[in-house]
Design brief:
CATH superfamily of the domain at 380-509: Lipopolysaccharide (LPS) transport protein A like domain
Largest sheet: 36 strands, antiparallel
Number of strands: 36
Radius of gyration: 43 Å
Protein name: Organic solvent tolerance-like N-terminal domain-containing protein
Helix content: under 10%
Structural class: mainly beta
Distance between the termini: 47 Å
CATH topology of the domain at 380-509: lipopolysaccharide transport protein A fold
InterPro entries: OstA-like_N (IPR005653)
Shape: rod-shaped
CATH class of the domain at 380-509: Mainly Beta
C-alpha cells in the first residue's frame, strides 16, 4: 500500500488509472492481484441495517416481503437474512438459503457462506444440492467454484433415478458429472445393495466404478470383487480382481466376470471355477456361461469337471462341458475328446452323459461316419486295472447312496481285453457285456450273443500251457484283484486248447481287436496329455481411480479460502470424521429490527 501511495502522490491526477496500473507492472514486474480483478458481489434487500458493535464493517440484510438476493460471477443466492462484508466481498446467509449456478446446480441449506474473492462456498444444516440427474443431501458441504467441486466428509446421500448412494466421504466433480465416494459406501436399489470401500459414480450414465472389497447382494445372487464396473440403470456389470458370483447353490469365480441381472446370465473368462456346493462338484476352464433361471452351465477351453464320489474324485475333461437341471436332478454332458479319470477306473469317448441323481454315466460315440483310426480312438473305452472294455456305447452305474460303482454295461461290439502277464492278450468279444463291481473293483463280467475268446492258459508256476480259442453263446468271467481267474462258457461251446508253438501268430487277435493301452489314463495329469495349453484371452482391466489432490490443498488452503469473518477456522478445513452440524442462529439485535419496523410503519 505504501508503494501505491507514492505513485498517487506524485503522478498528476489527470493520468488515467489504467496507465498507472501499466506503469506499476512495468516497474515492479508484479501483475495485479486476484483481489483487484475480482468482481464485487451485487445484492438487493428489503431491509438494510447496521450493527457496528457486533458486526463492524458489515451491513445486515433482511427479508420483509422478498428474500435477500446476491449475484456474483454466474451464481445467485437467496436467503432470509444475511451479514454482508462489502469490503471483504464476503457474506453469511441465514434461513432458507438457496444457491443457483446456471441451470445445472441448485443448493439449499439453513446456513451458508460465500467468499466472492475465492469463490468458495460453505453450507450447513439440511444441505441439498440438486443436479439434473441426481440430488445430494448432507449436513455440511464445501463448494469450490474455481475447481467446480463439492465435498462432504460427515456422511451424505445421493439419489438418482435408480438408486440411493450413501458414504461417509464424498466429492463431486461438476465438469465430469462424477461423484467419488469413500468409506462405508452403500448403494441401495430395489433389486440389490452394493457395499464398497470406494466407488466412482457418473450421474449422467448411472455408471459405477468399484474399488476395494465390494459386494453386490440381492435375493438371488451375491457378487464380490475388488475392482469392477456396474451399470446401475441397465443392471449389467463387469468385474475383475478376485471376482466371484454366488448363486443359491453355485459359485462362479474367474479373472474376468460379466453379469446381467435382467436375464440372470453371467459369463467368465480365464481361470474359471464353477463350484456346485450341493452336489460337491467343481468345474474349471477358461470360458464359462451360467444361466441361473435354467440352472445351466456351459464351460470350454480346457474344461474339467470334478465330482466327489465315495471319498474319491471323478474327473471328466472334454472340449466342452454342459451342466443342466435342478440341483436334485443335475445332468453333466461333455462333448468331443472326453477323458475320464478315477483312481480305480479311467476312460475315453467322443461324448459323455452323467446323471448325478441316478448315478448313471454314459460314454457315447456320436460320430456316425466311416470307421477310421481316429474314429476308433474316439469310440468309448474303459480301463479297470489291466482290463480294457470297448463298444459302441458304455453305461456305468453307481449307487447314488453309497456312491460306489455298481455295474457296467457295454452295448454292441463289446470287447474285453486283458494284457497277459507275460505275452499276448486275453480277449473276449460279443454283442453285449455286463460287468459287476464290489468295493469299486470289477469281479464279474458276463458277455452274451456270439461270444468269442482267446485265453492264455497258465499253470500255477505261471508257465504258458496253451492258448484257448472258444466260441459260445455266452460267457461268465470271474476276477480276483481285477485279474481273470475263471471263465465259464455256456451253450454251443466250440473251442480247443492249442499249444503255444502251434497257435499261429496271425490268429492271436480276434476280429475287431484294438488295444489302446497307450491311451490309458494313469493319473489326473493324463487328462490333458498331448494337448497344448490354451491361449488365454487378454483381459481388459479396469483402471485404478485417478489420484486426485486433496480437496483442501495448497491451491485452496485456509489462508486463501477463508475470510477472517467466516464461521470456519483454518483447523476446520483439516480432514476429520465429523463436522459440526450446528447451524448458527442470526444474532442481529432484535431492537434494531423492531426500530426499523416502527420506522416503516410511521413512514407508511
Amino acid at each position: 500500500m505504501a508503494f501505491n501511495y507514492f505513485w498517487y502522490k506524485f503522478i498528476p491526477v489527470k493520468v488515467p488509472a489504467l496507465l498507472i496500473i501499466f506503469l506499476f507492472v512495468i516497474i515492479t514486474g508484479v501483475a495485479p492481484t486476484y483481489a483487484q480483478e475480482t468482481k464485487k458481489i451485487d445484492y438487493t434487500s428489503d431491509r438494510t441495517l447496521k450493527d457496528e458493535i457486533k458486526y463492524p464493517g458489515a451491513i445486515i440484510l433482511s427479508k420483509v416481503t422478498n428474500q435477500v438476493y446476491f449475484i456474483h460471477e454466474g451464481i445467485e443466492i437467496w436467503c432470509d437474512q444475511a451479514i454482508h462484508y462489502d469490503q471483504d466481498n464476503f457474506f453469511k446467509a441465514y434461513g432458507n438459503v438457496r444457491m443457483q449456478q446456471g441451470d445445472t446446480v441448485t443448493m439449499q441449506s439453513n446456513y451458508a457462506e460465500y467468499n466472492g474473492t475465492t469463490q468458495f462456498a460453505f453450507a450447513s444444516g439440511k444441505v441439498k444440492m440438486t443436479r439434473p440427474q441426481t440430488s445430494l443431501e448432507t449436513d455440511t458441504l464445501f463448494f469450490d467454484r474455481i475447481k467446480q467441486q463439492a465435498y462432504y466428509r460427515s456422511g451424505g446421500t445421493v439419489r438418482d433415478s435408480a438408486s440411493v448412494l450413501t458414504s461417509r466421504v464424498g466429492r463431486y466433480f461438476m465438469e465430469d458429472d462424477k461423484y467419488s465416494f469413500l468409506s462405508k459406501v452403500k448403494v441401495t436399489n430395489p433389486e440389490y445393495v452394493i457395499n464398497s470401500e470406494q466407488l466412482d459414480f457418473y450421474s449422467e450414465t448411472g455408471h459405477a466404478y468399484l474399488y476395494g472389497p465390494t459386494t453386490i447382494e440381492s435375493e438371488t445372487s451375491t457378487v464380490y470383487c475388488e475392482r469392477g464396473f456396474y451399470d446401475t440403470r441397465n443392471d449389467t456389470g463387469y468385474f475383475v480382481k478376485n471376482s466371484r458370483i454366488d448363486y443359491e447353490n453355485r459359485i462362479l469365480a474367474g479373472d474376468s466376470l460379466y453379469f446381467n441381472r435382467n436375464n440372470a446370465f453371467a459369463s467368465g473368462t480365464n481361470n474359471i471355477k464353477v463350484t456346485d456346493t450341493l452336489n460337491k462338484s467343481l468345474i474349471t476352464g477358461h470360458y464359462a456361461e451360467v444361466f441361473r433361471d435354467k440352472d445351466s452351465v456351459f464351460i470350454t477351453k480346457r474344461a474339467l469337471a470334478a465330482t466327489l464320489q465315495d471319498k474319491d474324485s471323478v474327473f471328466i475333461h472334454s472340449d466342452t462341458i454342459m451342466i443342466t437341471g435342478k440341483p436334485e436332478d443335475r445332468i453333466i454332458r461333455g462333448y468331443y475328446d472326453v477323458r475320464m479319470f478315477k483312481t480305480d477306473m479311467s476312460g475315453k469317448s467322443d461324448s459323455i452323459y452323467l446323471n448325478q441323481k441316478s448315478g448313471l454315466t454314459k460314454l457315447i460315440n456320436i460320430n456316425k461316419g466311416p470307421v477310421s483310426t481316429i474314429d476308433k480312438r474316439r469310440s468309448p473305452v474303459i480301463w479297470s486295472g489291466n482290463n480294457q472294455m470297448t463298444g459302441d456305447t458304455i453305461h456305468i452305474l453307481s449307487d447314488p447312496e453309497t456312491e460306489q460303482l455298481d455295474s457296467l454295461k457295454v452295448f454292441n461290439n463289446a470287447f474285453l481285453v486283458q494284457k497277459d502277464s507275460i505275452q499276448g492278450y486275453n480277449q473276449v468279444k460279443g454283442q453285449e457285456l455286463t460287468g459287476l463291481f464290489v468295493n469299486n473293483e470289477l469281479y464279474q463280467v458276463d458277455i452274451v450273443k456270439n461270444t468269442e475268446t482267446i485265453y492264455y492258459t497258465r499253470n500255477e508256476a505261471t508257465e504258458l500251457v496253451g492258448i484257448n480259442k472258444t466260441l459260445s453263446s455266452s460267457i461268465k468271467i470271474l476276477f480276483q484283484e481285477q485279474v481273470i481267474q475263471e471263465i465259464y462258457y455256456y451253450k454251443q461251446v466250440d473251442g480247443t486248447l492249442t499249444a503255444p508253438e502251434e497257435f499261429p501268430q496271425n490268429a492271436r487277435e480276434l476280429s475287431g481287436f484294438n488295444w489302446r493301452g497307450d491311451e490309458q489314463l494313469k493319473s489326473k495329469d493324463d487328462l490333458f496329455a498331448g494337448k497344448p495349453a490354451p491361449k488365454l484371452r487378454q483381459i481388459k482391466g479396469i483402471p485404478l481411480p485417478e489420484e486426485e489432490t486433496d480437496f483442501f490443498d495448497e491451491s485452496n488452503s485456509a489462508e486463501t479460502l477463508l475470510n477472517e469473518n467466516s464461521r470456519l477456522k483454518p483447523g476446520d478445513l483439516k480432514d476429520k470424521e465429523k463436522d459440526s452440524t450446528a447451524v448458527p442462529e442470526s444474532t442481529i439485535r432484535p431492537e434494531l429490527l423492531k426500530e426499523d419496523k416502527e420506522e416503516e410503519g410511521e413512514s407508511n
